Amino acid sequence: MNINWKWDMFFDAFPFILKGIGVTIGLTFACFLFALVFGFVWVILRRIKFKPINWLVTWTMEFIRSTPPLIQLFFIYYAWPMIPGIGVTLSSITCAILGLGIHFSTYIGEVYRSGIDSVDKGQWEASVALNYSTRQTWLKIILPQAIPPTIPMLGNYLIIMFKEVPLASTIGVVGILALAETYGAEHYRNLEAYTIVALIFLVLSYPSAILINKLERKMNRRFDKNAVMQESKGAVI
Amino acid sequence: MEFYFLYMGVIIINAIIEVFPVLMKGIHITITVFILSVIFGYLFAFIAGLCRLSNNIIIRSTTSFYVEIFRGTSLIVQLFWLYYAIPMLFNIGIDNRLMAGVLAISLNYGAYMSEIVRGSILAVDKGQTEASIALNLTRFQRMRLVVFPQALRMMLPEFGNYLIQMLKATSLVSLIGMTDILYHGNILRSTNLSMAPTVYLLLLVFYFIMALPLIFLTRKGEEISKRGVANG
């Protein structure tokens, strides 16, 4: 079997494809920010005690989470402008931010919720005992304890989103994947073009995954309550 | 106003009647890809997960290499790479979309799930291993009879989640030209743009209905894994 690999093609395609890296990374962070903010919306909506609304919110989240982001992107890009009354035409970048942002906000909402649930019940009771208002309870007691332990998980979602962003090339966002497709079609050389895209993803996401892993271990040590208690016990003895 | 709503209702029902049969033409492809991906995905996951616990450094490092490559790049890139680049690399003229689609999805999620297999096996209490050594079980018996059944329970909830992820991933195969439900939907949309809302809404509902049993399966898995071995 002879291997059909051309280095000159590789070096020719590399600068061309690398031009899209700004769009890909920018879009990742834009989607992530959107999801971070929108995740809070889900948390607030899920805390509504009224049964039918709670049920509706839970199943809406489940619906968004268990349907493919690709079709959600198509829906926002092609179908949304066609809906009479509320439809507006959006640029492909906006669609990508909205689509992927909403899709991942349901995951991030769950992350926030797990963080809030892990705050000790005594903290709520203490804030009642100290006569804190609801606003103060949330901003000064609950959230400062709930959010920092979730940072590694959020970091993981950032990497996952980075890997989902090339989906946006299907609605015409010109990131690295779309440029690779263009190059491959122009030169009849898909091989090198797609290999470059894979390499770029690997080079960017692998080190960040290691970084997040380290952060997670550090955070676990810091926030593991038993470990803290054991340490403090040791200090006393 | 009432007339308007009635009019819209008739349009929507007509559109659904028109769209539904067209989409159904692709349903068997979606289901085939999903089932094959699940089978191969779990297969790769168990093989890779167990290989990463091997004592042989060559097996261990080769598997790590596979897992890191597939976890480090995105599924859509792997799919395109397998379908467009591999035949070019080896100068072969295979044009098997089903194979490329299933391989991409199962290799990708197999890599993710191998980490769960590995983590669960490592999470089984050390005392269990020690006890089975004390009972004079062989290495293989120890894994098959003691460690693995306990690890399997820990894997269930995450495995359920990945089932849903794999179902979602099957929509990508339309991008390499497989005639699944999304492919038929896209054709319908390109012929008549005003049908786009019905088409994509129906597609989302389709996927949700397919995901529903998986969601309940995941919950069941969570229950089983919470209950533990002793009470099972």
Give a description of the structure.
The complex is a heterodimer of chains A (237) and B (232). Chain A has 237 residues and is mainly alpha-helical. Chain A has one domain (22-236): MetI-like (MetI-like fold, Orthogonal Bundle), CATH 1.10.3720.10. Chain A has 11 helices and no strands. Chain A is flat. The relative contact order of chain A is 0.14. Chain B is mostly helical and 232 residues long. Chain B has a single domain, classed as MetI-like fold. At the A-B interface, α3, α4, α8, α9 and α10 of A face α3, α4, α7, α8 and α9 of B.
What is the mean pLDDT of chain B? 89
Radius of gyration of chain B: 23 Å
Rough outline of chain B:
flat
Number of helices of chain B: 9
Biggest sheet character of chain A: none
CATH architecture name of chain A? Orthogonal Bundle
CATH class identity of chain B? Mainly Alpha
Q: What gross morphology of chain A would you assign?
A: flat
Question: Radius of gyration of chain A from the CA trace?
Answer: 23 Å
CATH class of chain A: Mainly Alpha
Domain ABC transmembrane type-1 (chain B): 23-212
Family (chain B): Belongs to the binding-protein-dependent transport system permease family.
InterPro entries (chain B): AA_ABC_transptr_permease_3TM (IPR010065), ArtM/GltK/GlnP/TcyL/YhdX-like (IPR043429), Ectoine_EhuC (IPR014342), MetI-like (IPR000515), MetI-like_sf (IPR035906)
Pfam families (chain B): BPD_transp_1 (PF00528)
Index terms:
heterodimer, A: 237 residues, mainly alpha, MetI-like fold, 11 helices, 78% helix, 0% strand, B: 232 residues, Ectoine/hydroxyectoine ABC transporter permease subunit EhuC (chain B), transmembrane (chain B), cell membrane (chain B), amino-acid transport (chain B), MetI-like_sf (chain B)
Write the layout of secondary structure elements.
The complex is a heterodimer of chains A (about 240) and B (about 230).
Chain A: H1 7-18, H2 21-46, H3 51-65, H4 69-79, H5 92-117, H6 121-129, H7 134-146, H8 151-164, H9 176-187, H10 190-223, H11 225-236
Chain B: H1 2-24, H2 27-51, H3 57-72, H4 75-89, H5 97-123, H6 126-134, H7 139-169, H8 181-191, H9 196-227
